[in-house]
């Protein structure tokens, strides 16, 4: 098990590989509403805490009502979303929150910092995860732990993200788990 890694599960092959590791937390991406019950039952049986990316659930609205439904019915460790209303609702329901932001230019960076300061999530996931400068600036400006995600393809990129202030690094690249 490598410190600072939060495995991201995209499909059943990822799930099979993941449960063979020593990790006890993961991020659930790209799932279908019809599979949630089976997935959560399986992960709970394996004593794995799950963060679920609400925006990536197929067959379900990606709003604060869907968030409430997911929390009440599946009790995930945390909720990930790009939507501030979803983050606020998850916080109201005492669930760990991760606001996902995409940093494509300096304007997106400034806007993201303002959203983070207004929303006060528990964590911020910065994409792409190789955006070291943005990771450092967001952490310094908001004092909220940063998770680096996206385009992470080797251990050097993990180390760089951590060196620049990332608390965790999400990756779906199984070789890095």
UniProtKB/TrEMBL annotation:
<keyword id="KW-0319">Glycerol metabolism</keyword>
<comment type="function">
    <text>Regulates expression of the glpD operon. In the presence of glycerol 3-phosphate (G3P) causes antitermination of transcription of glpD at the inverted repeat of the leader region to enhance its transcription. Binds and stabilizes glpD leader mRNA.</text>
</comment>
<keyword id="KW-0694">RNA-binding</keyword>
<dbReference type="GO" id="GO:0045893">
    <property type="term" value="P:positive regulation of DNA-templated transcription"/>
</dbReference>
<dbReference type="GO" id="GO:0006071">
    <property type="term" value="P:glycerol metabolic process"/>
</dbReference>
<keyword id="KW-0804">Transcription</keyword>
<keyword id="KW-0805">Transcription regulation</keyword>
<dbReference type="GO" id="GO:0003723">
    <property type="term" value="F:RNA binding"/>
</dbReference>
<dbReference type="GO" id="GO:0001072">
    <property type="term" value="F:transcription antitermination factor activity, RNA binding"/>
</dbReference>
<dbReference type="InterPro" id="IPR013785">
    <property type="entry name" value="Aldolase_TIM"/>
</dbReference>
<dbReference type="InterPro" id="IPR006699">
    <property type="entry name" value="GlpP"/>
</dbReference>
<dbReference type="Pfam" id="PF04309">
    <property type="entry name" value="G3P_antiterm"/>
</dbReference>
<protein>
    <recommendedName>
        <fullName>Glycerol uptake operon antiterminator regulatory protein</fullName>
    </recommendedName>
</protein>
């Amino acid at each position: 098990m490598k410190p600072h890694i939060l495995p991201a599960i995209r499909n059943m092959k990822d799930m099979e590989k993941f449960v063979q590791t020593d990790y006890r937390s993961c991020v659930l991406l790209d799932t279908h509403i019809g599979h949630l019950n089976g997935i959560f039952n399986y992960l709970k049986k394996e004593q794995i805490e799950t963060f679920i990316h609400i925006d990536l659930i197929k067959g379900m609205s990606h709003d604060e009502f869907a968030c409430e439904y997911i929390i009440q019915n599946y009790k995930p460790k945390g909720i990930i979303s790009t939507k501030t209303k979803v983050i606020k609702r998850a916080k109201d329901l005492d669930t760990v929150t991760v606001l996902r932001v995409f940093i494509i230019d300096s304007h997106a960076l400034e806007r993201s910092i303002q959203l983070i300061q207004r929303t006060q999530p528990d964590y911020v996931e910065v994409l792409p995860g190789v955006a070291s400068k943005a990771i450092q600036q967001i952490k310094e400006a908001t004092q909220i732990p940063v998770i680096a995600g996206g385009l992470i393809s080797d251990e050097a990129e993990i180390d760089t993200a951590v060196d620049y202030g990332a608390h965790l690094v999400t990756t779906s690249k199984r070789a890095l788990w």
